[in-house]
Design a protein that fits this description.
Among the domains are: 82 residues, Methyltransferase, Methionine Synthase (B12-binding Domains), Chain A, domain 1 (Orthogonal Bundle), CATH 1.10.1240; 127 residues, 3-Layer(aba) Sandwich (Rossmann fold), CATH 3.40.50.280. By secondary structure, it is α/β, with parallel strands linked by helices. The protein has a five-stranded parallel beta sheet, with helices on both faces. It is globular and about 85 Å long. 53% of the residues lie in helices and 8% in strands.
Length: 301
Amino acid sequence: MPVSGRGTFSARDMSPDDLIGFPSLPGPDWCADGEAEPPIELRNELARTIEAEIIPRLMLAHRASEAARAAPEKAPAPIVITDQDVDDFAAMIVRRPLPEARAHLDGLRARGMSAEAVITTVLSETARRLGVLWEQDRCTFVDVTVGLSRLQQLLRIFGPAFEAEPAPQGQGLRVLLAVVPGEQHTFGLAVVEEFFRRAGWHVQSEFLPSKPILLEHVRTEWFDVVGLSASGEVASAGIQAVVNGVRAASLNKNLHVMLGGALFVAEPGLALTLGADFGARDAAEAVNSIDWLLGSKKLSC
């Protein structure tokens, strides 16, 4: 018979040497062909062991594995944007094609940066940086115009994702946002608009209004708040005149006026001296401050 390569077993007589080390085994026939019924005491003990020890351990192991699968992933480390990062992005936004800037921001989003952080710590800071570079004669008017135009395009791209992020919802209040007549810087106002929309406000914006147009809006339409942006191109007396004119013309005699923009970043309290209810250094502070102001008014009634 040819060798198949498989091992074969056959019954053979056990020699005394085969039993060395296994003195308790009764020889080759120690496992009987028929099934032996275990004693009732052994069966009861086995049942108690399964019920009291094995099943609970299996359940605990199952719960631990389920918890491990359900546990949220460790939050990624926050992305820190440095002044050098802002400088580099400002150069990119002016000198390189827009898709490269878009890809850079998409990369930050993929690493866990929120749309809010993209807008506030990248786009807004870059806009401020371009303004500083212009004031220092380190870039031209054309550079600033190109850069701000591209920042506006990126804001429109990332705005929907920002509005979709969770935020406290407003009560359908209406806000009119405008730059102070005579001012030219509008990007910061666009960012504030995004914040108010996400918070549930009905927003109307006038980016380059004349004073008559601004007063006509508040005279014929109801607004709970008017937000005015100033970067310092208009003198303080001119800003105060606009604030007073808006209050006098407003259909809402309890109108709240806020002032924001570069002029109030270092000194938000300046807004009070110009006739406003408060000043805001950035968009998030603007929304939070007006929410607090309106909430405190309700509590005091």
